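for the writeup, i need someone to sanity check this before i put it in the appendix. the sequnce is what the collaborator sent (i think, or maybe the updated version? ugh). structure was predicted straight from it, no edits. if anything looks off just tell me and ill rerun, i have time this weekend
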Amino acid sequence: MSHINYDLHSHTLFSDGTLTPGELVRHALLQGVHVLALTDHDTTDGLADAQAAATGSALRLVSGVEISATWSGRTVHIVGLNIDAGNAVLQRGLARLRELRNIRAGEITARLERKGITGVAEGVKQLVAGPILSRTHFARYLVQAGAASDTGQAFKKYLSKGAPAYVSGDWAPMDQVVQWIHAAGGQAVLAHPGRYKLGSGKLKSLAREFRECGGNALEIYSGSQRPEDSWRLVRISQELELLASVGSDYHGPEQRWLQLGRLPKLPAECTPVWQEWR
């Protein structure tokens, strides 16, 4: 095979995606993906269904997860690849984060209702299919309730930093999240670093601290960061000797950014995260 198509960041309705694990696998096959990582937010519940759908097909499924972490007072996301989903250390950590999500959801609900939006708790509950209650679910409800024209406007008007229903997440420290991933035998990847809106100095500080706490790779190409960020990340990965990963951050067919499996090929100077995979 001349070129293996990797997509190492995707979601299902077990977190804030809109497809079942089986639908995601089938769509990946149609899109020509050879190696797919399912990386739902703070849960591994969809992995068994995805593996069952991939068995006997041309697709290799990588067991993954995307974990919410706190660095320097801001939220960052760490993807774990090739994890043992049954690892007790990892699962205890994820369970704690899901509890924090539920506490945050209660506060978001209260703030939206103070803004005169009714039926939030019940409406959002109808949109949740898995164990994760995310801001995306609130955004979808706001669209459904007529309070926003689309999810982008819902975030801008209500849910983003500075907006009336924004509630910051007090997640696990970044070094602890990396430890959970390593305990489960996985590689830790800093997800969409370009999305955090950091200047070059701050971005390098984040990547350096990530490496110092055992992080393995940067997501060089991501559907949810600007293409021009990728060249900054290539340079940082070389300077800090971090591996390189790619992922569309696919949530479903209604997604406006990069589609599943449509990622550029890594530059030759990058060392891929999959280089030593069997």
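The chain has a mean pLDDT of 94. The radius of gyration is 18 Å.
thx in advance!!
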